[in-house]
Amino acid sequence: MKRQHLIFAALASAAAVFSPLTHAQTPAPMSNDHHRTLGDVVDDSLITTQVKGALLREQLTKSLQISVKTLNGVVNLTGAVESTEQIDSALRTVRGIKGVTDVKNNLQLRK
């Protein structure tokens, strides 16, 4: 009886973990009619996480509120910063992340 409970708990845990992934496996149409796979989504999520971590470690950008979004390896940065040095530091940091194919700079100087 105890073994059945363990098996049931393991199956329930697996279902809870993998159910969000079933939605991610359904390809989402893109503007150029290509489909994104689960691997594409995971790669972009990993890049976003790495970029955010790198920006937090970088002295000039660690306290800034910079929004990071990644699509097909292209990182889009948005937010307001105090100086062009902070923009340059953010761009340099992001370009150094493995998997980043391009950086779209939408950072603006605070007035």
Mean pLDDT: 79
Task: Using the coordinates above, name the CATH class of the domain at 36-109.
Answer: Alpha Beta
Structural class: alpha+beta
At CATH's second level, what is the architecture of the domain at 36-109?
2-Layer Sandwich
Rounded Rg: 19 Å
* Distance between the first and last residues' Cα: 68 Å
- Spell the H/E element sequence: HHEEHE
CATH topology of the domain at 36-109: Histidine-containing Protein, Chain: A
Number of helices: 3
Uncertain stretches of 5 or more adjacent residues: 16-33
Taken from the alpha-carbon principal axes, the silhouette is globular
User: Strand count, sense and closure of the main sheet?
Assistant: 3 strands, mixed
General description of the model:
The chain is α+β, with helices and mostly antiparallel strands and about 110 residues long. The protein has a domain at about 35-110: Histidine-containing Protein, Chain: A (2-Layer Sandwich), CATH 3.30.1340. It has three helices and three strands. The protein has helices at about 1-25, 40-55, 85-95, and strands at about 65-70, 75-80, 100-110. Mean pLDDT is about 80; it is low at about 15-35.
